[in-house]
Amino acid sequence: MNKKIIATLFFALFLMACSNEVANDDAADVVFTNARVYTVDATQPWAEAVAIRGNEIIYVGSSAGVEAQVGANTRHHDLGGQLLLPGFIDSHLHPVAGGAYAKALSLDTFGTVDDWVRAISDYAEENRGAPVLFGYGFLATTFGRVGPTRQLIDAIVPDKPVLIMDEGFHAAWVNSATLRALNITQDTPDPDTGFSYYKRDANGDATGYLLEGTAGMAMDQLDVITEDVVVEGTGIIIDIMNAYGVTAAFDAGAIGYADMLASVLDRVEKTGALTIRLIGSYRPEGPEDVAGAIDTAMEWRRTLKGERYHYNTLKIMDDGTVEGRTAAMFEDYQGEPGNSGETVYTQEEMTTMVVGAAQNNIDVHIHALGERAIHEALNSIEVAREAAPDSTTRYAICHIQVITDQDLPRFAELDVIAQSTPLWASHDSYGEQFVSADQFRRYWRFNSLEEQGVRLSFGSDFPASGAGTLGLSPVMQIEIGHTRQSPGDPESPTQPLQSERLDVEELVRGFTIDAAYQMHMEDQIGSIEVGKKADLVVLDQNIFEVDAYDIHKTQVVLTMMDGDIVYEASLGSETVDATASTQ
Ligand SMILES: [Zn+2]
Question: What's the pTM value of the predicted model, to 2 decimals?
Answer without folding.
Answer: 0.88
